[in-house]
Amino acid sequence: MKKYTLNFALTIIITWIASMFLPWWSVMVAGVLSGAIVRLQKASTFIVPFLAIAVFWMVQAWILSSTNDFILASKISVLLGIGENPILLILITGIIGGIAAGVSGLLGNQVGAAISPNTK
Amino acid sequence: MKTWKLLVSLILFVGILYSLNTKFVQIPPLGKFMNPNNGFWTNELTENESSAIEIPGIIEEVKVIYDNQLIPHIFAQNDIDLYKAQGYVTAQNRLWQMEFQTHASAGRLSEIVGSAAIDYDREQRRKGMVFGAEKALESMQNSPEVLSYIEAYRDGVNSYINGLTKADYPVEYKLLDYKPEPWTLKKTALLLMYMTDMLAGRDSDFEYTNMLKKYGSETFDLLFPDFFKVQDPVIPQERDWGSWQVNVPNTPERYMATDLATGLMDKPHPDNGSNNWAVGPDKSYSGNPILANDPHLGLNLPSIWYAIQLHSPSQNVFGVSLPGAAGIVIGFNNDISWGVTNATRDVKDWYKINFKDKSNSEYLHDGVWKKVDKRIEEIKIKGAPSLFDTVSYSHHGPIAYDENFGLTDERVGFAMKWIGHSGGNNQKTLIELNKAKNYDDYVSALSHYVAPAQNFIFSSNEGDIALWINGKFPNKWEGQGKFVLDGSNPEHDWQGFIPHEHNAHVKNPERGFVSSANQHPTDEAYPYYVFNDGYETYRNRVINDFFRSKEKFTIQDFKDLHNNNYNLKAAELLPTVFEKIDRTQLNDSENSYLDQLSDWDFYNDIDQVGPTIWERFWIHLRRSVWDEIDSLEFEAAYPKTYQTVHLLISEPELDFMDIVETPEKETASDLFLLSFKAAVKDLKNIERKNETLNWGDYKGTFVGHLLQGLPAFSRFNLPIGGNSGIVNATSKNHGPSWRMIVEMSNPPKAYGIYPGGQSGNPGSKFYDNYVDTWAAGEYLELNFMQSKENQSNTLFTQTLKSQK
Fold it and tell me: Residue B354: which CATH number?
């Protein structure tokens, strides 16, 4: 449980720092690093960083959009063909960030294994 | 074991990275686009914060006060700072649009949207848009003062661009996955060319030549008369031109060009035009002149106009600007107000070129072979290799049609002679008008202006009203340029220009008002040859009749006239239809539609069904009159609405009334009957689909985003009446792009509105907040600030100053 929390927090912290000088794929860098440093097992390797970034992106999107009455989110959701639905758009944003981070978590885990073969 | 796991996860990682970072056809790169750090979420923002901004090179502090409509009021302490601030502030609200319009002008859209825009880009290059911009830039650079202002404007735009992070880019950049490039002087020239093309880029020379060849000159003149039977020109017919010394070149022998180009280039919208009017002290309720203007253009978001006030020790001026050009285009200051309508004139002619051989490098002119100048045009295409096109330039201008475009004969070409290629310093006109204090200043400002020619209307607090039909016009021989000309005959070249002081104009006419609505500038008495393929025939008469109808006019009268939906075209034709149509041939249902139409008062208001019935009827009627032209196998021209109506009334048995497909010989009465029956069929379908025949629903006016009306960023089904040819010229996607009324009191009282909003950001509540006000026929009261102190109803203030 402690490892989950650690990986979750680390993914967000690294993303937060890396996004100051890297493009959107800072989440993927964070996923790899946290996955390699705090190695998890099985499905959690994907799920924990997925949740971390999904939550992180959704909260950010929510804060930006709710203070502006969801004006742009409503339009972009129409543009992307899901009808006027800012909440669904926020969810999709989270899923996209989550997938990017989760896949990176998988890679991080393998990189971690390759670097220090003795720890599991 | 571990190696393949590593490999699989690596492949997965790279796959996701690539697919979320790449644009697939219409789908933006999702990772880039959706991340809340610098994707579209950071554009979810309404402008609302005061700030201090450092701009390199600002000489003295500039204050920008944004009123509650997000209109900036710039207070600068010198003119260089003023235009620098205008550039900065405009870019802040409209950067994407500014760049997109200049890319469109230069034929560079393929760079942004890919191969879909190649044909468009090629036409822009072949029209010589960049060539024209280079000429205009040369003219501007010859005036050190103007140059310093447009440089300041450029620097202002660039200091905004330089301060942007990816998160700040307008959302369209993120959607299409590209980034802004630095602003240049050439871009300002390209923007002015964009307007010149929009307003002075039409001609029908090829089509007219084809029609003349097919029908002979007698029928041609019947279909396409130079003057219409009823007219009310811009310059009142009482005007006497007798005192002028005028030299018009001699008309050479008749010439008929053969082997014409096919697959002609797209033309600007035929309804691009405008209304303006002003009453002098005698006709004004208050004794102050009152002036109004409403330019009719495509209805787009972001709007083509950007409202702004510019204040410095040398000027205090308010109005609308074109994002990308310095100063104000339509507006007022404490002393004068002015506006423009398009002064359409045939300023684009075509010359047939005979090349010496298939290398296309020499052409015949005045008995000798002259060299062409070849320009290689590289059209960059997103996601594909560049396309190269060579355009040859003759002394006439670009040989736009040749074997690579529109023609098959490798030794023939058609060169374009266009006023848009002759340079000119329109910026100087705008900058001087902004500071003008009286009639003389106004006339002197107009003297620098070249194209697109405009009817510049004027009023001043000294009580003057005036109107100049202003631009640089070739002094043509009778008929020159109506048909394709002979590129080898020097007598066919433009022989010179009408001197500026001979441009038709009027000051303080006896009738007490001046007006224009793209109609004929003058009657036949004007001593120079005046021709155009599309003078307006309805709005102008409604406007002038209104001003002749009573003694005094108020601001409310002006508002009512802007919103006047009277359909003169229908009012002129329908009485004849009701008289001639054979009601016994109509069934009950058809008769009931006809009853509804005859109950109509000819106003195209949103809640009426009459205009919808009329519209469907007219579409069928027009088509059945000119069915002969529909079936022609060359590029053809259609007679104007006015002439069609005139012939239907006065020559009901003309051969053209016959429908070629049927064995019978039809007359106008038969066409009324058949067209009405066809219209009723349409109307029943529309009723089934829309559940109403109300004009507003049928017309469905929309304001479309500049990216081909991207629905998510557009506004649809706006409840506004009117139509093309009506004073309220709002058709489906075209109409009054800015409505302004100014009374020259002290200080002036002014009202304005446009179908858009000040912010170009679709995420801002100021993106489209004027649209509903505009559709309702209402106005904003413009807050013309006399000083920067103690302003109320403001949103926030920006302070621009130089770096320490």
Answer: 3.60.20.10
Question: Hey, is the C-beta of A81 within 8 angstroms of any chain B C-beta?
Answer: no
Identify from A22, A32, A72 which residue to disrupt to test chain B contact, counting B C-beta atoms within 10 A and taking the largest count. A72
Please check whether residue B659 lies inside any domain of the structure.
Answer: yes
Suggest the residue from B2, B3, B16, B708 to mutate for an interface test with chain A (most A CBs closer than 10 A): B16
* pLDDT band, residue B25 (cuts 50/70/90): confident
**Residues on chain B touching A97 (C-beta within 8 angstroms):** 31, 34-35
Residue range A63-85: mean pLDDT, rounded? 95
Q: Is B442 on the interface with A (CB under 8 A)?
A: no
Last residue of a domain, one of B499, B532, B562: B562
Which candidate from A25, A32, A78 shows the least CB-CB separation from B31? A25
The verdict on residue B552 lying in a domain is yes
ipTM summary value: 0.95
Contact residues, chain B, for A57 at CB < 8 Å: 34-36
B594 shares its domain with B549: no
**Measured between alpha carbons, how far is B3 from A119 in angstroms, rounded to an integer?**
16
* DSSP bridge partners of B379: B387
Q: What is the pLDDT of residues B399-435, one digit of tens each?
A: 999 999 999 888 999 999 999 999 989 999 999 999 9
Shared domain for B337 and B460, answered yes or no, is yes
d(CA B614, CA B566): 13
CA dist B737 and B296 (Å) reads: 6
Q: Same domain for B572 and B545?
A: no
Closest to A96 measured CA to CA, from A12, A24, A5 = A24
Cβ distance A23 to B32 less than 8 Å, yes or no, reads yes
Domain ranges of chain A: 2-115
The total number of structural domains that make up chain B: 3
Burial B695-711 (b: 16+ CB within 10 A, else e): bbbbbebbbbbbbebbe
- Counting Cα atoms < 13 Å in the Cβ hemisphere of A59 gives 7
pLDDT of residue B24: 82
pLDDT tens per residue across span B517-533: 999 999 989 999 999 98
Share of chain B above pLDDT 90, in %: 91
B171 touches chain A (CB under 8 A): yes
Mention every residue, 6+ apart, whose C-beta is less than 8 A from residue B272: B198, B199, B296, B297, B298, B342, B734
Helix, strand and coil content of chain B, in percent to the nearest 5, comes to: 35, 20, 45
- Is the pLDDT at A119 greater than 60? The verdict is no
Is B384 strand, coil or helix? strand
| Structural domain for B389, as ranges | 199-562
Tell me, yes or no, if A65 comes closer than 8 A to chain B by beta carbon: yes
Clarify whether residues B522 and B593 are in a common domain: no
Are B408 and B344 in the same domain?
yes
**Are B576 and B430 within one domain?**
no
For residues B152 and B421, the answer to whether their CB atoms sit within 8 Å is no
Rounded (5°) CA angle B521-B273-B471? 50
CB contact under 8 A, B763 and A100: no
Identify whether residues B550 and B573 lie together within a single domain: no
pLDDT at A120: 45
- Verify that B656 and B548 share a domain, yes or no: no
- Nearest by Cα to A13 from A38, A1, A30: A30
